[in-house]
Structures are given as structure tokens and as C-alpha cells.
């Protein structure tokens, strides 16, 4: 597990973010460089580096949070769908070594809303 990441600092309020949702084990906030308005990241509060490192119950918690907020993310952005994605490891494009699930609102035209 990573000791401290930029995302643990966000959870602790040391770095400002726009919080979407929080519970005992997960945290969701707006991405600072969104692919589309409303682009949200869902993370486990414990700084597991990759999905592979996460216990099944925590993986369940992250997806449960995604399921809870997907409707709200769509409604807030007039999206009709969302893409859920994980860059699972550096060679897959993971830049922050704290596992995270991207929720990207999509438009009816088929691309990210912009
Ligand atoms: P990755 O490439 O690791 O899958 O995605 C990392 C995401 O974290 C990127 O989309 C990036 O914009 C976002 N990000 C990086 N640093 C910060 C930050 O300090 N605040 C917020 N809200 N998002 C960040």
C-alpha cells in the first residue's frame, strides 16, 4: 500500500477538491483535469496502489459508490451515460499511485460532453 499520495492529501483536506460523495471507505471528487464536465474520481480511502492490491470488499465499496453517484453525475451534466474506467498500473496510464475509478459523463452524440 502507498504511504501517502496526492489523493490521501485530498481526503484529509490538505489539497482542495470538490467532494461529490464520502462514506467510511470511499471518497469521490471532481477530476482537476476533466475529460468532460463532471468527470469524477472514486477512490478507496486506504491508499491501495492498484486494483490488484485491493481486497474484494473494498473493490465492492468503490463500485457501490460509483453506482450510487452515477445517476447524479449524469443529471448534473445532462449526460445520458457514463464511461467507467481504471488505468490499472503505470504502463496503462496510471499517473497517481492510489487506485481510482474514473466516471466520465457521455453525451448522446457518443463522445465525452464538453
Ligand atoms: P490516472 O491517469 O492516474 O488514471 O488519472 C489520474 C487523474 O487524477 C487525472 O485525471 C488527473 O487529472 C487527476 N488528478 C491529478 N492530481 C489531481 C489533484 O490534485 N486534484 C484532482 N481533483 N484531480 C487530480
From TrEMBL:
Enzymatic class: transferase
Keywords tagged on the record: Methyltransferase, Transferase
EC numbers: 2.1.1.-
Protein known as: HIT family protein
Organism the protein comes from: Halovenus rubra
Residues of the whole record sequence present: 1 to 114 of 141
